[in-house]
Amino acid sequence: MLFEKIFARTVAPFAGLPGPKPLFPIGNLLDFLGKSTRPWEVMASYGERFGSMSVMWMLNQPAIVLNDARLITEVLCTRTKDFYKDEPCGALIPVLTRSSPNINNGAEWTRTRTQSPLTQPWIGEWRRAQMPALRSVLRRWGERMASVTDREAVPLQNELQRITFDCFSVATMGSELSDAAYADFMSLASQGSKRMLTPRRPSPDLNSRGQETRKRFLRVLRDRYDAAVASPRPASFDLLSMAMRQNTLLPPDELSAEMGNVFYGGCFSVPSTIVSTLYLLTQHPNESQKLKAAVLQLDDDCDLEALNDCKPLDYALREAMRLLPAVPMFGRRVLPTAATEVGGCLLPPNTSIWLVNWLLQRSGPHWDRPLDFLPDRWGGGVAEANPLGSEYFFPEGRGPRICLGAEYSIFYMKLVLATLLRRWDVECGQGQPYDADQKFFFGVRMPMGLRARLRRRA
Ligand code: HEM
Fold it and tell me: How many domains would you assign to the chain?
């Protein structure tokens, strides 16, 4: 009787909302267990079945699912003070460091975001200066991949993940890190990912082995900082040196840790996006030819402006991020201290809210032929009308918490695609569905199974 009363009290605030029928006591958990690697598709299907706002139940916990541009604008852009970011904060606090805005709210979020090297006025210079060094890493990798894939195609996501780790190490700290550092990073990311996926609230800290791994990884980063202090390199282009020259406000441990947090931000989402782009290009040989012709018109060592001005490259990347976003959903919560209204419903404090870009980016009437890969759709003012972080195109989030690495990731992905496609024919996922062995790892849709080959062009 008491139990029924408690249950009724929990359910009552959501009684007027549509949603999938929950089963007592598991709620809608079964929807997610059958296709556990695709929660975004389940939530998008709620949008199709129940409209812009629905309620689902994870055991006895309600969660609001928003598939509506206007309501998502409220949560992410215009009424941010009524909400906070809960997950992945709890899951990732012991993995990342407190210096990352990703796991902060309130004043600490403002401090970490405004002090991050990535938001400083000189950051464009950093992108420009790293281009030659990254190109040589990528060309060596291309040669190696062409020889490795001479006989058979190999899964591309893992390979791109590692080369992205190497490129980010060069860009942030001036040279590559060791295999052992990569192993430590991957071990920490795996623990973070498991913590993000567990339906229970994760424990406050990692186990003792995890804590050791984290200490070791942070030590490697701090050693780079100490080396830069011991022998400053006045002309060095890496983020750490530039931030030090520019008198960053971040204390040493935070600054060095922030170099490592770039890996967590981009080492999964960036490769996922590049693999998806190469997959879509392989499926559409005409588009692939168009893009190749455009990148061949660039100089081998073209500058940042020329890279940015290459419209076919820009449009192909946008179209891939629209159709197959690496982060297809993310979350917020109502403040723990005050109920708030969303879509005409008064949501109790701490209600979980899922914001889904998967459906809005892939459906009409906003997008014509929404499921077709049509890079040219972005011409004629459409790119300007739908910038990154707008109502129907937000693969890197929206509003004040839009991805901190958004500009950097777009730059880096263009550099990778242009460098590869100038020299090699890349075939990715030939004859495979886009979701071959797809995983959900660290909040990212990972196309783990798509196999690729690189062939040097004559
Ligand atoms: C294609 C690549 C990327 C995608 C798809 C992506 C996606 C996203 C999304 C959707 C968010 C917003 C999450 C939310 O509002 O809850 C976000 C936030 C964030 N991203 Fe990225 N990201 C990418 C690359 C990167 C890179 C390269 C970095 C680091 C340089 C990075 C660092 C961050 C950080 C620190 C935040 C938190 C920002 C804040 O809360 O103020 N991301 N990203």
Answer: 1
